[in-house]
Write a structure and sequence with these properties.
The chain has 13 helices and seven strands. The chain has 475 residues and is α+β, with helices and mostly antiparallel strands.
Length: 475
């Protein structure tokens, strides 16, 4: 064992290998740190976005939602649909001002408000504000529940007028109203792209400006049902009710009542149909109950829905946004926990390897590999190679090999019987030559292969001669 250690020391002197110390423990990989920071940044982004959406929704009193997350939006209960909220069928007496229901578009478009906003080409599709006078409640304004009896005449008059109006001029009138609103400083960022103007948001904040005027809304619908119309003088037999959500409406829907729908469009109380647009008149704010509290939605009376399935497909109801956001946050937290545990385990493994290397004296490359072995510090000069030549290392190795049998020589002597006596041959040897021959220190002078076993010294050679007549041998 001692020879092996000396041999290892000799080789180490020729080829120095540094043993890692406590400060040279390899640190966790850089990729783990990058992943951890990326996960933390993503989690912070999600939380900041959720906070901003929550603040924005707090101003409007609703929860934020994206077009694909409208499944969580409140929808009217059974008592909230127009079919059940219609007033009982009874004869509504003519009231003052109802004669304006029969005015033509040309006559209705000559009011001062229309002249200041719209061009002369679209006057035929504009209605007199007196048509919508019955929708104003003395206390509640234009926000009332369902369709009241005093509103029914105006309700069917507008439905009949819009289905006969020129749809091209109607859309043009809606665009001119948007152009008029774009002149405001608060909407100047939409002047380069009027198609992104938040019509629903502006209508929600300024209902009086849009009341009774053409508007165009685009988005997706979550509900589309049909029901028979009440008895009316215009021959309208069936009505369709759609709940439309726009990108700027958050979870606030718009109630669209029309007389036609596209062929093949899905219908039902829980659907998701994208690529829907509608152009009609803003009749009033329709009140309903959802989630045990009163709500209202702008009511648009139109001829038909426009649907482009080639641009936006139909899908099943998606996951509610609250559930989706919760899953995303939990997934990010789980990733952070896994990264933390992996980093701790990696640190413990490196510490254990460092402890083993210090105790056992193993080279760093033997345990960690050449890539994981600690590198030489920049401020420490490189160690010079050993000045001892390779020939000297070979000589020391040969000397150790030749000296190994001498350690076992006493064991061979001990195997000799204790009562054995020296022979005459041993006594005849001269005292000057009783020493065992020693091997030469220079391996070039001892070319013999293998170790030379020396003879056992004569026990009587070192003792003084005895008198043969002495009786010690008898004893």
């Amino acid at each position: 064992m001692a020879n092996n250690r000396r041999r290892l020391a000799t080789v180490a002197g020729t080829f120095p290998v540094r043993i890692p110390t406590a400060h040279a423990v390899p640190q966790p990989s850089y990729s783990n740190t990058v992943l951890r920071r990326a996960a933390v940044g993503l989690l912070a982004t999600v939380l900041i976005a959720a906070t901003q959406d929550g603040l924005a929704s707090a101003q409007s009193g609703e929860q934020p939602a994206s077009p694909g997350a409208a499944s969580a939006a409140p929808r009217p209960t059974d008592g909230g649909s127009l079919a059940s909220d219609r007033a009982p069928e009874e004869k509504v007496p003519e009231r003052a001002g109802t004669t304006a229901h029969t005015q033509t578009g040309s006559a209705a478009g000559k009011h001062p408000a229309a002249e200041s906003i719209f061009s002369e080409d679209v006057r035929d599709v504009l209605l007199d504000p007196l048509v919508f006078a019955p929708t104003r409640h003395p206390k509640k304004g234009i926000t009332t529940r369902g369709v009241r009896p005093e509103e029914r005449a105006a309700y069917y008059f507008v439905l009949d007028f819009v289905r006969k109006a020129d749809q091209r001029l109607l859309k043009r009138a809606a665009r001119e109203l948007v152009q008029h609103r774009l002149k405001l400083p608060e909407y100047q960022r939409y002047r380069d792209n009027p198609g992104e103007f938040p019509v629903y948001y502006d209508l929600f904040r300024h209902p009086e400006i849009y009341h009774g005027k053409p508007v165009t809304l685009r988005g997706h619908i979550r509900k589309l049902i049909s029901y028979p119309a009440d008895d009316n003088e215009y021959g309208i037999q069936r009505l369709y009710e759609a709940w439309l959500f726009t990108p700027d409406s958050q979870t606030n829907p718009a109630v669209v009542v029309c007389t036609e729908i596209p062929e093949g469009i899905p219908t039902g109380g829980d659907i998701l149909v994208d690529g829907v647009s509608v152009t009609g008149y803003y009749f009033k704010n329709f009140g309903y109950t959802a989630q045990d509290r009163p709500r209202f939605a702008p009511m648009i009376l139109a001829k038909r829905l426009e649907w482009r399935p080639e641009q936006a497909g139909t899908s099943e109801p998606l996951v509610p946004p609250a559930v989706r956001n919760t899953v995303v946050v939990l997934a990010l937290v789980l990733i952070l926990i896994l990264l933390y545990r992996y980093e701790r385990r990696d640190t413990r493994q490196h510490a254990e390897l460092q402890r083993r290397m210090l105790l056992e004296g193993e080279p760093a490359t033997a345990v960690l590999g050449p890539e994981s072995a600690p590198q030489r510090s920049a401020d420490r000069p490189p160690e010079p190679p050993s000045a001892e030549p390779a020939e000297h290392a070979a000589a020391v190795s040969a000397e150790d090999t030749a000296a190994e049998p001498s350690e076992h020589a006493p064991a061979e002597t001990s195997r000799r019987p204790p009562d054995s006596q020296p022979t005459d041959t041993d006594d005849a040897q001269p005292t000057g030559t009783d020493e065992s021959p020693q091997p030469s220190a220079d391996p070039q002078q001892s070319p013999q292969s293998g170790p030379q076993v020396p003879q056992t010294p004569d026990p009587g050679a070192d003792q003084p001669s005895r008198d043969p007549t002495d009786g010690s041998e008898g004893r």
